[in-house]
Amino acid sequence: MAVKTLTIDDQLISAREEQTVLEAAREAGISIPTLCELHGLGDIGACRLCLVEVTGIAKLQPACTTRVAEGMVVVTNSQRLQNYRRMIVELLFAERNHICAVCVANGHCELQDLGLAVGMDHVRYEYLSPQCQVDLSHERFGVDHNRCVLCMRCVRACDEIEGAHTWDVMGRGTASRVITDLKQPWGESQSCTSCGKCVLACPTGAIFRRGSTVSEMERDRWQLDFIVTAREKKQWII
Amino acid sequence: MSQRIVIDPVTRIEGHAKISIYLNDAGQVSDARFHVTEFRGFEKFCEGRPFWEMAGITARICGICPVSHLLTSAKAGDAIMSVRIPEAARKLRRMMNLAQIMQSHALSFFHLSSPDFLLGMDSDPARRNVFGLIASHPDLARAGIRLRQFGQNIIEMLGGRKIHPAWAVPGGVREALTEDDRSAIRSRFPEEIKTAMTAVGLFKQILKTHDTEARVFGNFPTLYMGLTNPEGKWEHYEGHLKFIDSSGNVVADNLDPARYAEFIGEAVESWSYLKFPYYKPWGYPGGAYRVGPLARLNICKFMGTPLADEELGQFRQMNPGAANGSFMYHYARLIEIIASLERIGRLVDDPDIMHTHPRASAGINQNIGVGVSEAPRGTLFHHYDVDDNGLIKKINLIIATGQNNLAMNGTVKQIAQHYITGPKIPEGVLNRLEAGIRCYDPCLSCSTHAAGMMPLQVQLLSPDGTLLDEARRN
Questions:
Q1: Complex ipTM value
Q2: The whole model's pTM is what?
């Protein structure tokens, strides 16, 4: 196991060569905001919140998909990055209809937490206010596209952990939507096993348990961790 | 030159009203209209949402009486699920509604209306507000504020927060009351009963010096509607609907609230965003009816608690048959505060409310759900049509203030006819027009009026539409 030495925020850090900058930073107690990343799922660098500055590379790099390298110098929290992160969160809020006060995930929402973390006291961009549907056709769960941020955690949890690949994404740009099977109503999906892993993975109130009312959607995400650890390491640790 | 007001629809209500007063050729008031100029749109944007969310969304209609919407919405949800909610939930919901009635009535009387009575209808408008009251009657003001706080505290203990608690849900409530909360509630009773009794005694004195107001503030015959229980007891959460006429005769009784559409019509006028509900068999506008504290006291046979029943007896003596003057809304409100306190006192000692399973679960078993309860300002209806998955297809809300719309218009006309004698509107008359509306404690005045001013606009118009005078506060 080769060890790489790098600098993150002026802190000299040793990391295993297969680790990402995000993992190395976390081990060193350095916090980088994330949204699409979820332990146990493959990283896709989709949300761009974990972008960091790497000396010698002009473009910002997503910490979740960038491997550590010897002598690498990383900055995780410059003013420039803070500005971009706030902009990203504002754009996420402007793209769909996120009404925290009446949301099932109010108080337990990663997007809401990010809004607070990046100091989003208002949104500078025009709200798109798209017409989005709510699908309650599934017996136990519902999906509200108004609250989806296209992090694709549901897609990955279903594909990588459950193996059903019920969820996927259709369309492009702001017209993108997560879908079940070939855009059937969720309740008519033949591949869905109703395991609920997508419900556990969702960072917002987009995927929820039917019957949930305001603020009731708390998720036991450790259950996903438990399954992944059990499968990969043959360790059943809670 | 006539003036046309163009309204740019806004998404929040509470606070913007307009009154037009029309003069005839002889320069006398021929008509007056009370316009509500806000557009809310709740009935539209709730479409497509899960019915479970309705309690949370519709509670946002109001910051003063969110509990009323919360409970009524939860009841409509119970109907869609076809469940009989656990007894603990039923009683806890009743307790929250009583706390809501009490705190809202305390706000109406102490914060909003009593400055008129205690400082004078014609007193300096800069001081004629709750702050002026604190300066001139500090003990009364403090007691009134504490009374309201007590109601808010009970709401907070039950729902986790004072405003917009997401607590009542289709099927019951989320959490029961703790033993500490029960003790805290019990400890405040003596003080709050005393405040309520002082206030009702004070109002009886006020009545003696305000006989003109009592005579011309919406004193005319209408029907009255409200919920009552099978024995005719004062009711606020369940039971059936009853209509009486202005002499106290029963017009209709034992009406199923869920079938409201058979006997309540909703008329629309081009000059107001507020609809005009009416009693269908009597037509529009002849079927005008009033709701709220005055109506509830008029239709009930008894209150069901000792102190409130004693006060109801005096109220009845003063107003045999039925009280037809809207000034009596204040009196009725104070009696309801006493009744609410007494009933909370009983509920808090009821062992049923400590059960730890206050929520029933079920799927979609009906495509239509109607919830009805008594809000502080009157009977509130929530009607939801849902698809088989529970998504709202259509929603109809009949709000208490709307049902008093015809009466509020009549009140404004009556006050204008009595006090306006020329093409000028003196400030004291403007205040009396406001005070006439304030009798109904309409929701639209809640937020702005609480700061001491209603952004009211009054226009005096000649027969050809010429604007003779205009007075406004904003």
A1: 0.89
A2: 0.89
